[in-house]
Amino acid sequence: MPAVLAGLLVGLLTLVAAPAQAHDVLLSTSPAADQTLGERPTEIVLTFNNDLLDSTQAVVVADAAGQKVAEVAGVVAGPAATFALPTPLGDGSYRVTWSVVSSDGHRIDGEYGFSVAGTGAATPTPEPTAAATPSPAGGDVVTTPQPTTQPEQGKDQGGFPGWVAVVLALGVAGGVIAIAIRNWPRKG
């Protein structure tokens, strides 16, 4: 009889255990990570593997000295969050620190860098000036930021899925119960 009860208990625990969910992961960015742009970006786009929740999404853009250049709330459309920069970024290196709410309701964040070169603008300006920026000489091609695939980023990039831990825990619990029942003193 105790063995039957132990088996029922293990079976019940297996049925009521909630499956673990992994957080969404960043698939691509625009500007791309480590990309050098030939023109001033006006927005940052982060694309994830699942639809994001329409909640507070934000990016902070800092220059090479670590000074905050922009802090922007995003607009969510499916798996993409778009962050319009208040002023286009000038020449230099930038670090984007992002924070979004993934489809499972948990906040995830990360960061990446990119550079801007050859635009003639040293720092972001509040309004475009009347002076024209020199265009590239000799028909040089100016690159446009394009989303590219990059390594997954985010907080929860662990070694194995959460469901594996649940299965292992249930197996250990079942083994402990079976040993305890087998060694239980018998009457009679």
TrEMBL record:
Domain (CopC): residue spans on this chain: 23-116
What's a Pfam family this protein contains? CopC
Q: Where primarily located?
A: other
Q: Where are stretches of biased composition, namely Low complexity?
A: 118-152
* UniProtKB keywords: Copper, Membrane, Metal-binding, Signal, Transmembrane, Transmembrane helix
Q: From what organism does this protein derive?
A: Georgenia ruanii
Q: Where is this region: Disordered?
A: 118-158
Name of the protein described by the UniProt record: CopC domain-containing protein
Q: Which GO terms describe its biological process?
A: copper ion transport; response to copper ion
Q: Does the keyword Transmembrane helix apply?
A: yes
**Domain of life of the source:** Bacteria
| Localisation | Cell envelope
An MF annotation (GO) of this entry: copper ion binding
One cellular-component annotation, GO? periplasmic space
Sequence intervals crossing the membrane: 160-181
Q: Which residues form a coiled coil?
A: none
Q: Where is the signal peptide?
A: 1-22
